[in-house]
Amino acid sequence: MRRKFRKLHLPADGRFLLILMSFICVGLMLLTFTLPNAAEPARRAAGWLVTPFQNGINEVGTYLREQFSGFQSVQALNAENEALQAEIDALKEQNNELVQAQTELTRLEDLYKLDQEYPEYNKVAAEVIAKDPGNWYSTFTVNKGSAEGIKVNMNVLAQGGLVGIVTETGEHWSTVRSIIDDASNISAMAANTSETCIVKGSLLNMESGKLEFSGLSDPYDLVLEGTGIVTSNVSSKYLSGLLIGYVSDITVSSNKLTKSGTLIPVATFKSLREVLIITDLKQTKESTE
């Protein structure tokens, strides 16, 4: 079976253009084979057009490589910075732990020195675990109680001297009323003359860092600024000779027979961490002596 092919019919102008282009192509081919240098202008023209384009591509490639390299450098720097920051954080944490350890060691050394200042009394160390609201430790709670032998009216020491007295006990806790509490009244005496006085707690006066004392007999004017005030031997609850503080100022009372004034307590009642509880009661201690 024969296939029938359709003849391609071109317009006269089209046939002429096709024939002309064919002759040009054949002529160029022959010219290239016979005259190799004839294509040089074409190559130059191509080079003139292509070379700037190629240079542009090379510059773009170089720029992209530099940017990628810079990006890698930034990533490396970020990683190094994160590692250094982690190391700094670890060093800060270690430093804080060392500072805390040093602070705790200092407090324990002070507590040991305080224990040595009153060797005649038996003592138990305790930690302050709570306090009443406010800036001052007027009453606070410690982590030792009846199970550890703590009883009501046991005297409490801290920071070089007397800070309070036990008023209530639980199995493993005790409440301490400090000497700055408004309800506190202590029979005291001048350390150099043994003349007695009364030291009264006052949270209002503690705003100036002082306590009041009154009823001091000092006929020879021996009690001066800086004189130590300690617990009296006639006190019914407080053991004798516990340092309370130092005279800050002193004036003659209106009756002209006694003196009154203020004293600076030896303890700081804005920060109490550890205390020593004297396990000897006043009555028990006196009855065994």
Describe the structure.
By secondary structure, this protein is an alpha+beta fold. The chain folds into two domains: 42-117; 123-288, Rod shape-determining protein MreC, domain 1 (Thrombin, subunit H), CATH 2.40.10.340. The protein has four helices and twelve strands. The chain has helices at residues 12-34, 40-117, 203-206, 282-288, and strands at residues 123-131, 139-142, 155-158, 161-169, 174-178, 185-190, 196-200, 211-216, 228-231, 243-252, 259-265, 274-278. The strands form two sheets. Strands 1-2-5-4-3-12 form a six-stranded antiparallel beta barrel. The longest helix is centred in the N-terminal third of the chain and has 78 residues, at 40-117. It starts with 11 loop residues before the first helix and ends with a helix.
Uncertain runs with pLDDT below 50, 5 residues or more?
none
- The end-to-end distance, rounded to whole angstroms, is 146 Å
Number of domains: 2
The Rg value, from CA coordinates, equals: 50 Å
What percentage of the residues does DSSP assign to strands (E)?
25-35%
Side by side, the strands of the main sheet go: 1-2-5-4-3-12
CATH superfamily of the largest domain: Rod shape-determining protein MreC, domain 1
Give the CATH architecture of the largest domain. Beta Barrel
Per DSSP E runs of 2 or more residues, the count of β-strands stands at 12
Shape: rod-shaped
